[in-house]
């Protein structure tokens, strides 16, 4: 791809960019570049794919959440943790994670309301809970892990092709 071609795309408004003060070099936000590639049926490099290997964990800061985050990182995932429901919704929109995890101390029905706005995007929903819940009352399919007993099962799932 020629440098001038990219400049023309920016000048014509096909590709969102901003100029740096001083030299005037263009910078293209990653989200805009990925949207441009998708919109033009161009391949998206793995390094730029949003959310593919990002796990957003909605949990209180506890030993359990630290252990879960550590296990996910060992499985090759980037992990973000928040206990704030507003920040959780913001991070889903901003980061577009490939998976979310919810600890037993959080209300999954509230999480479902946030997930409803994903426009049909697939997301892996993990629940770290010891109790049995009926999945029928929820829109998304949830996978249950009892922590720490199911630690290896979680790692196996996160390293499988199904989760990636």
Automatic annotation (TrEMBL):
Which species is the source of this protein?
Answer: Bacterioplanoides pacificum
What is the protein's given name? Answer: DNA-binding protein
